[in-house]
Design goal:
Distance between the termini of chain B: 81 Å
Number of domains of chain A: 5
CATH topology of the largest domain in chain A: Rossmann fold
Radius of gyration of chain A: 29 Å
Largest sheet of chain A: 7 strands, mixed
Strand content of chain A: 15-25%
Distance between the termini of chain A: 66 Å
Bound molecules: iron/sulfur cluster, FE2/S2 (inorganic) cluster
Helix content of chain A: 10-25%
Oligomer: heterodimer
Shape of chain B: elongated
Order of helices and strands of chain B: HEHEEHEEH
Number of strands of chain A: 35
CATH architecture of the largest domain in chain A: 3-Layer(aba) Sandwich
Largest interface: A-B, 20 and 23 residues
CATH architecture of the domain at 37-140 in chain B: 2-Layer Sandwich
Strand order of the largest sheet of chain B: 2-3-5
């Protein structure tokens, strides 16, 4: 325990650790000191002077070193002649702080008056109006009337896009520098900055495209005025008109806690829609941040294309049918297929949905398969990170290995937290076949050739070099493994190697130790927990089945399944929210509710079970996935729960040992978190929401339950290597891809871009191609037009092919690339 | 005399009746004949325009916030110089008042920063179904004056740069 200091703020005593700033100490006892430039997650800079307070310190007799006492025995306090900034002054023993004195009030009033000299009176239409720190503090501390002539206000540009996503209103900016410091300090991508000086100071962006950062949206939350707003929400609604419901981001395995702000919308025909997505504080998951994908990919939920009624194939076309007919048909076909039923579900579904799907497959004796091309989930259930893991507590003496993953593209908030752990002193080892943005923060960068993944981990385990030693000697160690350049088998082998490494170095079964899968979908981990596993040859499994039930996946769109050459096609039931190439070939289409329309739970990559709530009314006749499955199951005489997600979860908790003792009520529990945000004082932490709906519970991995853990043998190589005179295409994951749900957010189109591949400059030269040129990529007989990008760190002979970009490549394989 | 009293009373009553036959009638032959309303009468809302035809409303929804009956629904969009509705940064792309809810309190008028919404003298509000009780923007908006252009207008860049126009007629 570090030393503590006791001081008095506005007559209230408080004891805080040494080094705490006055503003934070005050916050702990509910005294709100007004701030603009200070943010509890960033270093103080003392730029705005809003936090002025009177500070007194006990008088110490120089000769004796004793505190001088008054006659009544209380220590004599000497106040500093000037007001001091509470955000830069650390507390000291016996300090007396006055935040409400006449002098302090005068200071606050003067600063507000000064800020308003050239602030426009835009509140009626300002997107920040109603949740604006400047508005709030003006009401509380400002002078009733300005003394400066209104006509003398300086005017600047009001509509200045910093990029497609973020707009700047130059007049409203109070130059607090929070946005710039956020990008520089927290994200480490200083793409915006101050330009000019004095009255002419303005925010500019240095990047192309403008404000090029996956975290740009967060600056709009911490900007204390309406200077930075998102293009997505621009003039979307007034803050007080929005309803808020807690949810979990379903875009990646981080599982950021979010809030959906909803409102009725005329252009959506009067339906209630999501107007914006805001972060919800969870200091163990996403703190106060979310990435731009999570913030802007919500338009699919109210797309006019949504499936609203069950459809059945009549000849060439799909015709609407009643739910009754649809469910009966599905049940009949599944019954007829019996053991030959194949359930193919993806990690987009909630645990409740997956549980019922598994029960249906088991009840019929069929097969339940996870859609995806990454393995290793069986190992994360054994040696996953222990309960109590919090990346924010990793620092000096700890180690983090990130292998085969471009973390910023695959799980942005993990990237942020891993980077911060490295900055706190953790040993960060980044092993990848090419350079990624995390390399900058790494203590050690390992660049291996494609195919050497397993060998790389085995080398670390030998502890012969200083990297291996650093990992082995670390107090705590976490391994993030991904599927960059790997298919199902390769990532499975890599996971096994990582699990052995962790166990051999004693880094399992404890908090802050263990294995984390950088999954491709939000709830892949949950699917593994519930017994789903991917298969290597999906096409064969499909062709052997009598009836196939595809839920929340688009294998035909992704090029994983095809009907070409299939002689006897199985009866195909597809449960989806949007039409996809898979629903087009289906025999029966069942419309499911989007997850924002219903309750459920996800398991994050850190194995935290988290609840999401129903924010929207259901779309058309769509039903929740678990209820559709249960309704089919009931017609087959199976006992499936269709009442509510909570009831399904109750059953799940009874039958699944990992979920023992978990209930919806426990998942909804909250604790006080620091910093305190989202209450009356938005000027302190920004507009991120306070967490009132649950922090979730981390599952206990087998290793922590002290059960015997048997790991499979490490075997072979993770993948093929490029051969002479051949091109090896390897899959990589990009944050903004061309998935059905992502593409419906038109704002992101420029960032998503056209399908592309990345090769070494020399390789490009050999093909007489240059950056930006078009080429034809042929994979497995399918071919597509792509734009060529070059990257010096890609191995020669390798072509990086992004997943879900319309290029059917999901494991390393030979491709051909030709100039157009 | 107790016997005469009722007769006297009856006679007085009849006299009043007789006298009124010679007074000016107060009845208006509505709907053929309409009574003018008082200057401060609060009837149906009108969304005003500036003289140049631009709409005063900037879609701020403060009227909706002030409305105690939650009768107003506003949705805003951004103006561009090619397609300008109001001199401000945004305009009301949807503006609806539900007259089954409105209590004609006039709070919306008070809240409006641009004096766009005014309760005027139309009191003929009858509907045959709930849907038609909701008046959309087209029904509320004042007709364009003879000199002015309808909205949206194409305006020269740089003419309208304020988010909230100042209160006097801007640049007409
Ligand atoms: S930033 Fe705040 S104070 Fe300034 S115009 Fe917007 S709401 Fe008003
Ligand atoms: S844009 Fe906002 S956060 Fe950035 S300096 Fe200006 S006021 Fe501060
Ligand atoms: S980091 Fe992942 S979970 Fe978090 S907001 Fe981004 S996509 Fe969503
Ligand atoms: S009528 Fe007035 S208060 Fe209502 S939205 Fe328009 S400008 Fe705002
Ligand atoms: S100077 Fe303290 S908050 Fe800005």
């Amino acid at each position: 325990m570090s030393k503590t200091v006791t001081l008095t703020i506005d007559g209230k005593q408080v004891t805080v650790p040494e080094g705490t700033l006055i503003v934070d100490a005050a916050k702990k006892i509910g005294v709100d000191i007004p701030v603009f430039c200070y943010h509890p997650k960033m270093q103080p800079v003392g730029m705005c002077r809003m936090c002025l307070v009177e500070v007194g310190r006990p008088v110490v007799d120089r000769a004796t070193g004793q505190v001088v006492k008054n006659e009544d025995g209380t220590p004599q306090i000497r106040f500093a002649p000037n007001l001091m900034t509470a955000c830069t002054t650390p507390v000291s023993e016996g300090m007396v702080v006055l935040t409400e004195s006449e002098k302090a009030h005068d200071g606050h009033r003067a600063i507000i008056e000064f800020l308003l000299t050239s602030h426009p009176l835009d509140c009626p239409i300002c997107d920040k109006g109603g949740e604006c720190p400047l508005q709030e503090l003006t009401m509380r501390h400002g002078p009733p009337q300005g003394r400066f002539p209104y006509e003398d206000k300086i005017h600047f540009e009001k509509h200045f896009p910093l990029g497609e996503l973020i707009y700047l209103d130059r007049e409203r900016c109070i130059l607090c520098g929070r946005c710039i410091r956020y990008q520089a300090e927290i994200v480490g991508e200083p793409v915006i900055g101050f330009y000019q000086r004095g009255r002419a100071t303005e925010i500019v962006t240095y990047s192309d495209p403008g404000f090029d950062s996956y975290f740009s949206g967060n600056t709009t939350d911490i900007c204390p005025v309406g200077a930075l707003t998102t293009a997505d929400f621009r003039f979307g609604a007034r803050a007080w008109e929005l309803k808020a419901e807690a949810s979990i981001c379903a875009q990646c395995p981080v599982g950021c806690n979010i809030v959906f702000n909803t409102r009725r919308e005329a252009k959506s025909g009067g339906r209630v829609v999501i107007k914006r997505v805001m972060p919800r504080q969870n200091e163990e998951v996403n703190e106060l941040w979310i990435c731009d994908k999570g913030r802007f990919v919500h338009h699919y939920t109210h797309s006019a294309e949504r499936l609203s009624r069950p459809l059945m194939r009549k000849g060439e076309t799909l015709q609407p049918v009643s739910w009754e007919d649809a469910l009966r048909t599905a049940a009949e076909k599944f019954e007829a297929a019996g053991k030959e039923v194949l359930v193919l579900a993806s990690g987009r579904l909630s645990n409740e949905d997956l549980f019922n799907l598994k029960a249906l497959a088991d009840g019929l004796g069929g097969r339940a398969v996870l859609y995806g091309d990454m393995g290793g989930g069986d190992l994360t259930t054994l040696v996953g990170v222990g309960q109590g893991t919090n990346l924010a507590t990793l620092g000096a003496g700890d180690a983090i290995l990130v292998i085969a993953s471009d973390l910023q593209e695959e799980a942005p908030i993990w990237w942020l937290r891993v980077k911060q752990a490295a900055e706190r002193g953790a040993t960060l080892i980044v092993a990848n076949p090419r350079a990624t943005k995390l390399d900058t923060y790494a203590s050690f960068v390992i660049r291996y050739a494609n195919g050497d993944e397993v060998q790389t981990v085995l080398n670390l385990a030998k502890k012969t070099d200083k990297i291996g030693q650093a990992f082995a000697e670390a107090e705590n160690a976490v391994v993030f493994f991904g599927s960059e350049g790997l298919g199902l088998e390769g990532s499975q082998r890599l996971a096994v190697a990582c699990a052995h490494l962790l166990r051999e170095t004693g880094h399992v079964g404890k908090p802050n130790n263990g294995l984390i899968g950088v999954w491709q979908r939000a709830n892949d981990q949950g699917a593994w927990e519930l017994g789903f596993e991917p298969v290597a040859d999906l096409q064969a499994a499909f062709e052997q089945a009598g009836a196939v039930y595809i839920v929340g996946a688009d294998p035909f769109g992704d090029g994983r399944l095809t009907l070409d050459g299939v002689k006897e096609r199985p009866f195909l039931v597809v449960q989806e929210i949007l039409p996809t190439p898979t629903t087009e070939v289906a025999d029966l289409v069942l419309p499911a509710q989007a997850y924002a329309e219903r309750e459920g739970t996800y398991v994050s990559g850190e194995r935290r079970v988290q609840r999401f709530y129903a924010a929207l009314p259901p779309y058309g006749e769509a039903r929740p996935d678990f209820a559709i499955t249960a309704a089919i199951g009931k017609r087959l005489g199976l006992d499936l729960e269709d009442g509510s997600a909570e009831k399904v979860f109750e059953r799940l908790a009874v039958t699944q040992p990992a979920f023992e003792n978990l209930t919806y009520a426990r998942l909804a529990e909250v604790r006080e978190q620091w910093p305190i945000v989202g209450r009356g004082d938005l000027y302190y932490g920004g507009t991120a929401y306070e967490n009132r709906r649950g922090l979730g519970v981390q599952l206990v991995p087998a290793a922590q339950r002290e059960e015997p853990v048997t790991l499979p043998e490490v075997q072979g190589e993770a993948g093929p290597r490029p051969e002479e005179d051949e091109w090896l295409g390897v899959p990589v994951t990009r944050l903004l891809d061309r998935g059905t749900t992502v593409l419906l957010s038109t704002l992101l189109h420029r960032r998503i871009g056209e399908p592309f591949v990345v090769v070494h400059p020399m390789a490009a030269e050999r093909l007489s191609l240059a950056e930006g040129q078009k080429a034809r990529l042929t994979v497995n007989g399918a071919s597509a037009e792509v734009t060529v990008r070059v990257d010096e760190t890609v191995s020669a002979g390798v072509v990086l092919v992004p997943r879900s970009m319309g290029l059917p490549l999901y494991e390393p394989m030979k491709v051909s690339l030709k100039a157009l | 005399m107790p016997v005469l009293e009722p007769l006297i009373e009856l006679g007085r009553g009849l006299w009043t009746t007789f006298r009124s036959m010679f007074e000016r009638p107060v009845t208006y032959q509505y709907p053929e004949q309409k009574r003018p309303v008082r200057p401060r009468y609060r009837g149906r809302h009108v969304l005003k325009r500036y003289e140049n035809g631009l709409e005063r409303c900037i879609g701020c929804a403060l009227c909706a916030a002030a409305c105690p009956a939650d009768a107003i629904f506003v949705e805003a969009s951004e103006n561009t110089d090619e397609e300008r509705y109001s001199p401000g940064e945004r305009y009301a792309s949807t503006y609806e008042i539900n007259y089954l809810r409105c209590i004609f309190c006039g709070f919306c008028e008070d809240a409006c920063p641009t004096e766009a919404i005014v309760l005027e003298d139309d009191y003929e509000l009858s509907f045959t179904d709930r849907r038609s009780a909701i008046y959309p923007k087209e029904m509320l908006l004042e007709p364009v004056g003879p000199e002015a252009e309808p909205t949206p207008q194409r305006t020269p860049p740089g003419l309208y740069t304020r988010a909230v126009p100042e209160m006097e007629d801007p640049k007409d």
